[in-house]
């Protein structure tokens, strides 16, 4: 009798079926060694790379004026004006604050892909204005527009990467956001190096930023929409 009681106490409860658990970090292996129900990381990698372009641009625009600031201030007529120089450097962060206030509602309203494309638009226009301007006011306007895109894009990138990445590589892909930001800062400093030797080179530095922003806007046309967002839209 005692034996029967003990056996009932320690009887194993069948574990839940985790083969399709979306939060499972390690894919369930099938008998033939394949991953049962786990999507391939190779399929999601291109989508993640396109998404992280916005983080690259965040880093690039953060550092793009460091090297050329002296040339910019001389050409635009505010050399020695420390207040104006400080505004040129920091006004993009003011725009980023405005952009990040609306990033969540925009991503939920029009979808992740369209939100990325919307964030790329002020980055393209703002960088072009900064490259073409001949006045301090034009530079400040361009930098502020770029900042709004900087605020919109990275929060959406973190959200999108989480939603399209397989659980087995979700943490790795999440780190791409910071890696891309650091790469953007490094590239901006490298591109700004010839500014003291080549006249008007600072304009080229801003034109370079148009390229990844355009690539992201176009690349998102071929990327998958977030499954979570599509599911939520279907429910509503």
TrEMBL record:
GO terms for cellular component: membrane. PROSITE patterns: MFS. Its main location: membrane. It is a multi-pass membrane protein. It comes from the Eukaryota. It is found in: Membrane. Pfam families: Sugar_tr (PF00083). GO terms for molecular function: hexose transmembrane transporter activity. Coiled coil: none annotated. Residues 16-37 are annotated as: Disordered. InterPro entries: GLUT (IPR045263), MFS_dom (IPR020846), MFS_sugar_transport-like (IPR005828). Keywords: Membrane, Transmembrane, Transmembrane helix, Transport. This is Major facilitator superfamily (MFS) profile domain-containing protein.
């Amino acid at each position: 009798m005692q034996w029967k009681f003990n056996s009932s106490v320690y009887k194993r409860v069948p574990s839940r079926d985790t083969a399709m658990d979306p939060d499972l970090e390690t894919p369930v292996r099938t008998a033939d060694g394949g991953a049962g129900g786990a999507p391939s990381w190779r399929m999601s990698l291109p989508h993640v790379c396109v998404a992280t372009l916005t983080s690259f641009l965040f880093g690039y625009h953060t550092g793009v004026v460091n090297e050329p600031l002296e040339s910019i201030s001389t050409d635009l007529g505010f050399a020695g004006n420390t207040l104006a120089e400080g505004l040129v450097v920091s006004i993009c962060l003011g725009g980023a604050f405005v952009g990040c206030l609306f990033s969540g509602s925009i991503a939920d309203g029009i979808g992740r892909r369209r939100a990325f494309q919307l964030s790329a638009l002020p980055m393209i226009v703002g960088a072009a204005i900064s490259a073409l301007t001949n006045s301090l006011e034009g530079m400040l306007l361009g930098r502020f527009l770029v900042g709004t895109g900087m605020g919109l894009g990275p929060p959406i990138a973190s959200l999108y990467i989480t939603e399209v990445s397989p659980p087995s590589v979700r943490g790795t892909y999440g780190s791409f956001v910071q890696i891309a930001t650091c790469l953007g800062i490094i590239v901006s400093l490298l591109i700004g190096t010839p500014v003291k030797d080549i006249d008007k080179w600072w304009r080229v530095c801003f034109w370079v930023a148009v390229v990844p922003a355009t690539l992201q806007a176009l690349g998102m046309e071929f990327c998958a929409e977030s499954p979570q967002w599509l599911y939520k839209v279907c429910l509503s």
